[in-house]
Design goal:
With 470 residues, the protein is of the alpha/beta class. It has helices at 3-13, 19-22, 26-31, 47-55, 69-75, 99-104, 107-121, 132-136, 141-152, 168-182, 209-218, 233-237, 250-264, 276-292, 299-325, 338-348, 363-373, 385-393, 407-412, 430-445, 449-454, 462-469; strands spanning 62-66, 93-94, 126-130, 156-159, 196-202, 222-228, 244-247, 268-270, 329-333, 352-357, 379-380, 399-402, 417-419. The protein is built from 22 helices and 13 strands. The N and C termini lie far apart (75 Å).
């Protein structure tokens, strides 16, 4: 493994912003929190995939994968991240190296690819991603990027995170390290305000950021940069001038929030925009933090006034579904911040959460689950498909909310299923989002198709068969 990559991995493993990490001894810290990869583990995402997830939502830059074309296919459009303008991030770029490149090296091919992208698309920057094959043959993408940047007068950012270095979550953090090393602080914003903030760990899935921005704008709070949903290169490059930051997913980008606080004095807190109470709490925390940093003192009462109006409106809209969903039981198979933030949203809708998975959750996430659900909270470390099927078929849950990989378990059990992960097509953040989530749950649970699929087939109904015999 490249010594530079090894050094970055050890730096990421020693994370002062993680309370769990600080309880370890020096030897345990160096091992990190990630388990060793086993055969088939990359099906859940390798480090390269994680880096692409973290950075690809930067919508106006070119994302160039230096490796064989299957890597580009694995990484393209792997998050349903929306853009309010630029679409270059939706174009897949790859050097598509072959056997001869493996023998002779792919650095010249990479340089030519960078030149072609700049000449054809003129992006503000090019991000170059290392893959397993090119790392193993020794291609030095950092040297190539430095030379290309000097030659073409454009930032060319090396993301040296080959897949074999670890799992997807490690790739998230290493990809974010590239922003800290090569992007943040390289430019100055055209103007600043006392209410500038950064959103860290937001990917604007299905346009969720656009459900939050109107609330912030109503308070005079400006999102200077988002890491990295609907982001622009120059916004991130000038994000070091923000007055405060909100961390939306500690599992993926706590290193960005913590290092920006160390280097530029930008305080941060972790919050969530899922559910009414969590959205209100996050707005309150933002207002208090900004006032402490010099924003007008009336920001706090104006925030309370906005929260009062929005909460009343959301509760009034949810009333139509409470009676239909009250007492219904939901099984939540997800991870990270959604393992606790979505629980709060479901409870506000009147549903009972019978279990939530914590496979990808931090100790802090688990503690929040206990606060919301009580000490008897059913936290699922690793539920097997057979156990999911039994739980659903025995009616211990009325609906399962999960990602696409487990949907077939619910369908096999003939039980309702709703996509809660990044492949979905509806935004569930903020006050508007909770209404959308409850509406989709109601439509799913009360869909008449479930009564139809649970009916016995004619050839399985003894009375039906007897009638045909007569």
């Amino acid at each position: 493994m490249d010594a530079r990559v090894s050094a970055r991995i050890q730096n990421v493993f020693d994370e002062p912003g993680c309370e769990h990490n600080q309880q370890k001894g020096e030897r345990e810290k160096k091992k990190g929190c990630a388990r060793q990869l086993s055969p088939g583990a990359a099906a859940g995402g390798c480090a390269f995939d994680g880096a692409m997830i973290a950075l690809q939502p930067i919508v106006d830059v070119a994302h160039l994968v230096h490796g064989p074309i299957p890597c580009a296919g694995h990484s393209w459009d792997n998050r349903n991240s929306a853009s309010s303008g630029a679409k270059l991030y939706r174009t897949g770029f790859t050097t598509d190296i072959g056997e001869l490149d493996v023998i002779y090296g792919g650095e010249k091919r990479l340089f030519r690819a960078i030149r072609e992208i700049i000449e054809k698309y003129d992006p503000p920057a090019v991000f170059v991603y290392q893959t397993c094959v090119t790392a193993l043959i020794g291609d030095d993408i950092e040297a190539v990027c430095e030379r290309a940047s000097e030659r073409f007068g454009k930032p060319v950012i090396p993301v040296n995170v080959p897949g074999f270095v670890g799992p997807k979550n490690l790739g998230n953090k290493l990809g974010a390290e590239a922003l800290l090393d090569y992007v943040v602080g390289r430019e100055e914003p055209e103007l600043t305000t006392p209410c500038d903030i950064n959103l860290i760990g937001d990917y604007n899935v299905c346009g969720e950021q656009w459900q939050i921005k109107p609330l912030l704008e109503a308070l005079g709070i400006r999102v200077l940069a988002s890491f990295s949903g609907d982001a622009r290169y120059r916004d991130i490059a000038s994000s070091h001038r923000a007055r405060a930051a909100m961390l939306l997913c500690s599992k993926s980008m706590i290193n960005v929030a913590r290092k920006m606080e160390e280097r530029w004095g930008i305080p941060f807190f972790e919050g969530s925009f899922y559910g009414i109470s969590d959205t209100s709490k996050s707005l309150r925390d933002l207002a208090r933090l900004l006032v402490a940093r010099g924003a007008p003192a009336d920001l706090v009462p104006r925030t309370e006034a906005l929260i009062g109006v929005e909460e009343a409106r959301a509760h009034a809209r949810l009333a139509a579904w409470r009676g239909r969903l009250s007492g219904r039981k939901a099984l939540l198979i997800t991870g990270g911040v959604k393992s606790w933030s979505v629980v709060s949203a479901l409870q506000e809708a009147g549903l009972e959460v019978v279990g939530t998975s914590v496979k990808k959750s931090t100790p802090e996430d688990k503690e929040r689950i206990r606060e919301i659900m009580g000490e008897d909270a059913h936290m699922i470390e690793n539920m097997k498909p057979r156990e999911m099927h039994a739980m659903l078929s025995e009616a211990r849950a009325d609906i399962m909310l999960s990602g696409g990989r487990t949907q077939f378990v619910a369908l096999k059990a003939k039980m309702p299923w709703l996509d809660i992960n990044q492949e979905r097509h509806y935004a569930y953040a903020g006050y508007e989002g909770i209404v959308s989530l409850v509406r989709e749950i109601d439509k799913t649970i009360n869909n008449p198709v479930w009564a139809a699929v649970r009916m016995a087939a004619p050839w399985d109904d003894p009375e039906e068969m007897a009638g045909e015999g007569e």
